[in-house]
């Protein structure tokens, strides 16, 4: 068996790779050759080196996983690497061959669990001391390059507007890209840029939990694509702008769904990219132009002012911000944050508890339970259990029902990062670390707590994915079953409903201010119309598409019932939906003046 590694690394040393071209002694063909050199971590600041951030598997959702890798020479011997890493090595050898680089799959002996654990525990130092972190999103192709170029433009121009929206604690509910020049002085995103941005944000890299520490601990982070280095911050700034302005949905809708070679799916990681950037800015500290702005965002679920600084609070901040990120080993939901937690905890003179240190011998359920117990007991709050999701999403066997297991799907939580001015929900009136007549406690797998029965859930609405397919009948049924005035607040029932629909927890103003109702109505209309257009376009023929859409419209009579009961409802009438479909002429339907 080939001997690639001549020494065993501990927490005081690491290896760097030098990439060159050589001749394979067996095939006599030119091949990539990687030579490893061991250094002490204390020498890290004296060595100029880069670190690679990439995905071990496929970089794109449409790429099939390769059954076998590609061979390189590692310390002179044949060594198999995955195709995505091979492509990255080819580009690195062409772009910056003179600079040593740290690559986890090569510089760590992955077959040695002792070395793996020790190196994982010092990855914050390895990335933090790197001169530059190079992000690899996969082999270049036109749409990916267009997305990076679009992000460079938007990221450069949008920062002042994004900072203003956050500082003003107000979202821009925009749905029309043509408004960008008037509102923000920016050229509208066109179809080519939209396709590029969606392609960019569909890169699997954005869904990896490990990338947080890889891009947050050094200032110089770039994306390498076709020999060009682009600042990573531009991508994060673009994601934040698309989110806070509201243009993200319009950008998605602009993408042609029949573009050959482009695979579109639900997990476009715009929100992941934004959250990665926010944490990157947090780690920059005073060096970040976002520093003062970030103080207006609550990352600690309302607990920051009620608890002393602690390692548990640092982890709470990360877990509430980064839900939905993926890891091939479920334990890496915690361990993948270990390096950056050490970095941020050290700033406050804190040490990580032993439960947070890498230990790949521990069962997943035991790790997640131990982490949940530490956070709940340290914060003296049950806020953490807000991260527990539907039982159908839970994958960890034997996990107590009160312990989150972090499914690989993005979801909303009432305690996620949001504007501080909004405030936090605390129906129990519990004050952490204050005398409590009804304390809660954890006994093994059991969380003991007092509760109050509020009532029975009688109706539920659609899931998020069902709403994306234009389904709203269950939501309509809820609204139609309500009295016109909600007795508990005196508000119109349709207003209570849509505030619930958008998770309105803004306690800044009571009674709550009416948002731009027209913009919200247009957004709901577009969410209903868009899937109908897709059904029509993807049908076998125009006639079949029209029949399918008409059949769907026939099941939407609840919209007219809502319009009759609530004339100012956010829901459109069936006639308004018909008028927005290209194959139904507007003159064929009757619209009220308000709808027109």
Automatic annotation (TrEMBL):
Pfam family, one: HET
Domain annotation Heterokaryon incompatibility: ranges: 49-214
Signal peptide: none
InterPro entries registered for this protein in UniProt: HET (IPR010730), HetReg/Transcr_Mod (IPR052895)
Name by which UniProt lists this protein: Heterokaryon incompatibility protein or allele
Gene source species: Fusarium langsethiae
């Amino acid at each position: 068996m080939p001997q690639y590694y001549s020494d065993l690394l501990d927490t005081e040393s690491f290896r760097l790779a030098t990439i060159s071209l050589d001749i394979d002694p067996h095939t006599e063909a030119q091949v990539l050759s990687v030579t490893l050199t061991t250094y002490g971590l204390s020498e890290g600041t004296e060595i100029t080196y880069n670190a690679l951030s990439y995905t071990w598997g496929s970089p794109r959702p449409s790429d099939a996983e390769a059954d076998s890798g590609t061979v390189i020479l590692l310390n002179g011997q044949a060594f198999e690497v995955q195709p995505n890493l091979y492509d990255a090595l080819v580009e690195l050898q062409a772009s910056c061959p003179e600079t040593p680089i740290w690559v986890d799959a090569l510089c760590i002996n992955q077959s040695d669990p002792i070395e793996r654990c020790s190196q994982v525990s010092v990855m914050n130092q390895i990335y933090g001391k790197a001169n530059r972190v190079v992000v690899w999103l996969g082999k270049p192709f036109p749409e990916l390059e267009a997305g990076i170029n679009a992000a460079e433009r938007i990221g450069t121009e949008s920062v002042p507007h994004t900072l203003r929206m956050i500082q003003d604690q107000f979202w821009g509910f925009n749905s029309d890209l043509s408004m960008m020049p008037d509102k923000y002085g920016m050229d509208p995103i066109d179809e080519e840029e939209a396709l590029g941005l969606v392609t960019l944000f569909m890169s699997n890299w954005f869904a990896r939990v490990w990338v947080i520490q890889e891009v947050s601990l050094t200032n110089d982070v770039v994306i390498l694509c076709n020999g060009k280095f682009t600042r990573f911050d531009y991508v994060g700034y673009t994601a934040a702008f698309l989110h806070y302005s509201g243009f993200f949905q319009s950008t998605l809708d602009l993408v042609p769904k029949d573009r050959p070679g482009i695979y579109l799916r639900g997990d476009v990681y715009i929100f992941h990219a934004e959250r990665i950037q926010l944490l990157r800015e947090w780690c920059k500290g005073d060096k970040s132009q976002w520093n003062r702005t970030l103080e207006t965002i609550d990352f600690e679920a309302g607990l920051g002012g009620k608890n002393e600084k602690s390692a548990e609070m640092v982890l709470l901040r990360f877990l509430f911000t980064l839900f939905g990120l993926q890891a091939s080993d479920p334990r890496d939901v915690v361990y993948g944050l270990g390096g950056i937690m050490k970095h941020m905890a050290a700033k406050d003179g804190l040490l990580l508890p032993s439960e947070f240190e890498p230990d790949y011998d521990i069962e997943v359920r035991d790790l997640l339970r131990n982490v949940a117990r530490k956070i709940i007991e340290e914060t003296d709050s049950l806020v953490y259990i807000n991260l527990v999701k539907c039982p159908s999403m839970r994958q960890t066997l034997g996990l107590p029902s009160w312990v989150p297991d972090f499914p690989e799907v993005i979801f909303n939580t009432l305690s996620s990062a949001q504007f501080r001015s909004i405030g936090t929900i605390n129906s129990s009136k519990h004050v952490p670390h204050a005398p409590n007549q009804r304390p809660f406690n954890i006994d093994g797998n059991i969380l003991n707590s007092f509760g109050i029965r509020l009532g029975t859930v009688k109706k539920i609405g659609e899931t998020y994915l069902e709403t994306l397919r234009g389904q709203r009948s269950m939501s309509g049924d809820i609204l139609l079953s309500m009295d016109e005035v909600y007795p508990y607040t005196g508000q119109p029932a349709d207003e209570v409903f849509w505030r619930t629909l958008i998770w309105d927890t803004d306690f800044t103003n009571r009674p709550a201010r009416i948002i731009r109702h027209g913009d919200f109505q247009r957004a709901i209309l577009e969410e209903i119309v868009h899937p109908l257009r897709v059904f029509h376009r993807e049908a076998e023929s125009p006639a079949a598409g029209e029949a399918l859409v008409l059949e769907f419209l026939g099941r939407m009579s609840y919209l007219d019932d809502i319009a009759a009961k609530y004339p100012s409802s956010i829901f459109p009438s069936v006639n308004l939906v018909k008028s927005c479909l290209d194959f139904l002429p507007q003159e064929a339907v009757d619209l009220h003046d308000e709808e027109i």
